[in-house]
Amino acid sequence: MHLFKTNADLQTFLAQKRQNGLRIGFAPTMGALHQGHLTLVEESQKENDITVCSIFVNPTQFNDKADLEKYPRPIAHDIHLLESVGCSVLYLPEAEEVYPADLQVFSFDLKGLDKTMEGAQRPGHFAGVVQVVHRLLDIVQPDALYMGQKDFQQYTIIRAMLRHLQSPIRLVRVPIIREADGLAMSSRNVRLSPEGRQKAAFISKTLFNAQQNAKTLSLNEVRSAALRDFEQYGLTDVDYLEFANGDTLQPVQSFQDADYIVLCTVVRIDGVRLLDNVILQE
Ligand code: AMP
Q1: Of the residues 151, 171, 173, 262, which should be mutated to test ligand 1's pocket, given the most ligand atoms within 8 Å of the CB?
Q2: Which residues line ligand 1 (CB under 6 A)?
Q3: Is the pLDDT reported for residue 278 higher than 90?
Q4: 2, 45, 70, 242 — which has fewest CB within 10 A?
C-alpha cells in the first residue's frame, strides 16, 4: 500500500495512473476502521483499478471540541487493516493539507437537508461534512465515491452536492455492515459497557421488525409498534425515530407520501449515540 501525506505526492501518483487509463475509487473515513469501512474499500476494488482510502479526523464537522479530541486514532492498526484487504493507497493528510490558509470555504444551499435528524441535533455538522468531502474530492478526483448507508443523511447530502455541482463522480451507497447480532458497526461501539452492548442489538431488531410491519400496517401503526419495541427492550433514550423521505429527508406521515422512505433512528446507550436505519421502500 502506498501512503501519502501530501496532496502533491498523492496527485503525482494518481495523475500517472489516470494517464494510463486506470479508474480510481475513493473511500473517505475518519479512521478507527472496522469491517464497515473495509467494505467500502472492497466495493471500490471490485469496480476500480486503484482504491484510495483517506483517514482524516475533520475538525470542522465536530461541534463539540472534546468529542474531536477524544476521537480514537489507532493509526498503526488502521494501516494494518487496509493492507490486509489490499487497499492501494492511504491518504493521511495533516489539517494544513486539507485546509490551507487561503482556501475558500465551499458551501451550497442544502434546502433543509441539514435541518432534520442529525442536523437538528448537531448544528453545523453537515456544513463541515460538505466542506471536507468537497475538498477531498478536489484533491483525489476519483471516478467513484463510496459512502455508507449507515450515515444515511450524510450520503443523501453528498448526493445532493454532486448533483448541484453536476459532478461526473459516481456515488455508491454501501449497505450497513453489522455485527453478528445485528448492531451496526461503528467506532463508537467500543465505548459501550457489556450490558449496554447486549442491549444495543435490539436497535436493529426493532428496525427489522418495522421493516416487516411496513408490508402490512400503516405508518402510524409501524411507528407505535417500534416505540413499543424500544420500550420493551429497555431502550428508553431515543433521540429520534423518523420516517424520512429518502430524497428530501423531510418526515413523511404515510407510505403514500413518497416512493423512497427510510426509517432512521438514534438511540443513546451508556451516553453513546448509536445510529441505525432501514430502507422501507425505494
Ligand atoms: P466515518 O469514519 O465514521 O466518518 O465513516 C466513514 C465512512 O464509512 C462513511 O461513509 C460511513 O457511512 C461508512 N461506514 C461507517 N460504518 C459503517 C457500517 N457499519 N457499514 C457501512 N458503512 C459504514
Answers
A1: 151
A2: 29-30, 36-37, 39-40, 147-148, 150-151, 174, 176-177, 184-186
A3: yes
A4: 70
Determine the pLDDT at residue 63: 85
Indicate which residue's Cα is closest to atom 19 of ligand 1.
185
Question: Does residue 64 carry a pLDDT above 90?
Answer: no
CA 261, CA 278: separation in Å to the nearest integer? 9
Tell me the C-alpha distance between 155 and 126, whole Å: 11
- Going 238 to 239 to 240 to 246, the CA torsion angle's sign is negative
Q: What is the C-alpha separation between 28 and 55, in angstroms, rounded?
A: 7
**Residue showing cell 427510510:** 262
Q: Identify each DSSP E strand in the chain by its residue range.
A: 2-4, 24-29, 50-55, 89-91, 144-148, 170-174, 238-245, 261-269, 272-281
